[in-house]
Write a structure and sequence with these properties.
The protein is mainly beta. It has 2 domains: about 170 residues, Thrombin, subunit H (Beta Barrel); about 130 residues, Neuraminidase (6 Propeller), CATH 2.120.10. The protein has 4 helices and 27 strands. Strands 1-2-3-4 form a 4-stranded antiparallel β-sheet, with no helix packed on it. Strands 5-6-7-8 form a 4-stranded antiparallel β-sheet. Strands 9-10-11-12 form a 4-stranded antiparallel β-sheet, with no helix packed on it. The N and C termini lie far apart (about 50 Å). Keywords: Photosynthesis, Photosystem II, Signal.
């Protein structure tokens, strides 16, 4: 595989257990930990009956099927609307953090170790497209050829620190056009289904390498949200980004673009912000549950739903987040609207289906 990178500068969920797991994988730097990560990205996932009850971090619909991914490289498939699950072969045993499909056949998954996986048969079979080590080595080679010492210094730092940096979210612009973002400001795209990769980092003013947790697109706008209140907005399909100031300096773990001018951010301690004018002004939404919001979605009715570490599904009504389930679940990590309108909630203890709380 030949990987092309364009780089001119380096511009960077759930109770204690979940937070600790995420933080652990983000900051590993010892030689022992690096060896473990390298082993995990080279070793296929083990078959386990515990897969459906493990930490699951993302799910996507692939036609009539649902694919969920999580710790240990687990990839699960359900053909009965999440009533039962079957583990699928995975080429890695490192944690997978995200999955998305562009159609019923073509999909991609991302995870720790800078891994990107691809499938062309609805998720039944997956191939490793790239990992962090390959990406960073190519970044260094490209920088040296261009005699870009700043980019080379960044690449050397990432290479010395190990290939453990996780990708945390992905955006599919087509069946072959993928954008991935992650820890330490990592941001890359591929326009040929993962064969070659280009860096987005020089487009994003992120000098401290803050973690990038969420990427969304609506029309020509691309929004990236992350650590310490970092928000960047593009109005030209990701060609350039403007840093957006918000009144909150805590991390945003999820974001949405409900309409042409609206931005919704949510994250640490339940803080949820909305802007009706592309980030010029912000309003704090009322959230009676001060637990970190880990995920969000816009349902088929155009309504906003959120999930938090307190195990609650929340629906936005009249500027207030209202709990949908009265009995808390295990800490939630991700949510997906199912074909029947209910919500698939992923947690540190696997997947479960919830009534969406819709008034229809």
């Amino acid at each position: 595989m030949f990987i092309i990178l364009k780089q001119t500068g380096y511009s960077h969920r759930s109770n204690f257990l979940f937070t600790a797991v995420l933080a652990f994988f983000m900051v590993l730097s010892s030689s022992l930990a690096r060896a473990a990560v390298e082993d995990a990205i080279d070793r296929p996932a083990e078959v386990s009956r515990l897969g459906p009850y493990s930490v699951l971090l993302s799910a996507a619909r692939a036609g009539e099927s649902i694919i969920a991914v999580g710790e240990r490289g687990f990839i699960l498939l359900s053909d009965d609307n999440a009533k039962t699950w079957k583990q699928l072969p995975s080429p890695v045993s490192s944690t997978l953090t995200g999955v998305a499909f562009s159609n019923e056949k073509v999909g991609y998954a991302i995870g720790h170790g800078g891994t990107v996986l691809g499938t062309k048969d609805g998720g039944k079979n997956w191939a490793l497209l790239v990992n962090g080590l390959t990406l960073v080595e190519a970044l260094l080679t490209d920088a040296l050829l261009k005699k870009d010492e700043e980019a080379a210094e960044t690449a050397r730092f990432l290479l010395d620190d190990g290939p453990d940096k996780p990708f945390l979210d992905l955006l599919l612009l087509s069946s072959e056009h993928i954008v991935v973002v992650g820890a330490y400001g990592l941001a890359f795209e591929s326009k040929d289904a993962g064969k070659t990769w280009h860096s987005w980092m020089s487009r994003i003013d992120n000098p401290f390498g803050l973690h990038l947790y969420s990427i969304r697109k609506q029309g020509n706008r691309v929004l990236i949200a992350g650590e310490q209140g970092f928000v960047a907005l593009s109005n030209d399909n990701g060609d350039s980004f403007e840093t957006i100031e918000t009144p909150y300096e805590g991390s945003f773990f999820t974001a949405q673009l409900p309409d042409a001018n609206q931005i919704v951010l949510a994250g640490l301690r339940g803080n949820t912000l909305v802007s009706e004018d592309n980030g010029a002004n912000w309003k704090q939404l009322i959230n009676p549950i001060p637990a970190t919001i880990t995920a969000s979605l816009i349902d088929s009715d155009g309504q906003l739903l959120f999930a938090n570490q307190a195990g609650l599904l929340l629906r936005l009504k009249n500027s207030t987040l209202i709990p949908v389930n009265q009995k808390p679940l295990p800490p939630l990590t991700s949510i997906l609207e199912k074909s029947d309108g209910d919500v698939l909630a992923l947690s540190i203890n696997g997947a479960m289906s919830l009534d969406s709380g819709s008034s229809k």
